[in-house]
Amino acid sequence: MQRTLNFILLFATLLFFWVWMNGSVAGDVIIVGVLASFIIALIFRNGSSIFSDFKPTPRALVYSLLYILFFLKELVKSNLSLAAIVLSPALPLNPGIVKVRTRLKSRMGRLLLANSISLTPGTLTVEMKGEWFYIHCVTVKSADTDAATAAIVAGFERYLEVMYG
Length: 165
What we know:
5 helices; globular; about 160 residues; 3-stranded antiparallel sheet; mainly alpha
């Protein structure tokens, strides 16, 4: 039952983005979208879906929306911060790799965390080893694991824990 639900959710998500990105509901666009979405959903039917570990509770759905808003806020903040660094005549860089810890247990939750960190300018997830992430930062504020975890991971984790555990 869960596999079928994952398949349907993945298919619907792919088809939605196909139609949205094409900006058309013409017959040929829908046919190609249905075919492509079906094939991709079929290939990834064995749990490689973003919904495979998702907890479909009302609270998790609300937290999904809050996560998107939090990510967008962090995206804007990091863009402005990086722009200030680049535009500063002193170019205040302090690059380095910091080690952070996550409490997330699910593979998909950890993957979303790693990608969220990498998508915000100024940080890049270099490696994931179990509960440990190694993050390259343009400006390292603290090499202390607990401080770096609080600064980089904690905000995302608050939402992902509810969504994925």
